[in-house]
Amino acid sequence: MSILYKTIRKAEPGVAGGGQYKFYAGIVREREATLREMVKEISSRSTVTTADAFAVIENFLELVPKFLRNGRNVNLGQLGRFKVNLKSKGHELPGEVSNYSILGSKVSFAPSLEMKEELMTIRYTKAAGHEQDFEEEAE
Q1: Sign of dihedral through CA atoms 102, 87, 80, 39?
Q2: 84 burial level (CB within 10 Å; 0-12, 13-18, 19+)
Q3: How many domains does the chain have?
Q4: What is the pLDDT of residues 43-86, one digit of tens each?
Q5: Is 40 among the domain residues?
Q6: Cα–Cα dist 53/58, whole Å
Q7: What pLDDT score was predicted for residue 129?
Q8: Is position 14 within any domain?
Q9: What DSSP designation does 129 have?
Q10: Predicted local confidence at residue 137, as pLDDT
Q11: CA distance 42 to 36
Q12: 139 confidence band (pLDDT: 50, 70, 90)
């Protein structure tokens, strides 16, 4: 199996009227894999029922945010690691840093070495019908 790609035209960022356009490869996105689809696959590959698989994933979905809210990284072994990163204002003196310095946070995911190695084996195939035309990138 391979990832299908198409040609996408992108404008130069920050230039009125688009500036110089360039062409890039972009993934042809297939239908998204849903939670229900994942649960059915897990159930078909193991001895757990669909209901049991849903129950485990529901607990997982409750626990990951709980640990992250408490400042803990969540290491999922061969899958990777979730962690919270802060966006903060910079100050001249250490004593100036306070709760008001924090502008927001975001959750990041870093794939494990095993996952990265697995993804390095991806093959790419140009999608049929995209040889001569291109698609404008959605903003």
Answers
A1: positive
A2: middle
A3: 1
A4: 999 999 999 999 999 999 999 999 999 999 999 999 999 999 99
A5: yes
A6: 9
A7: 73
A8: no
A9: T
A10: 57
A11: 10
A12: very low
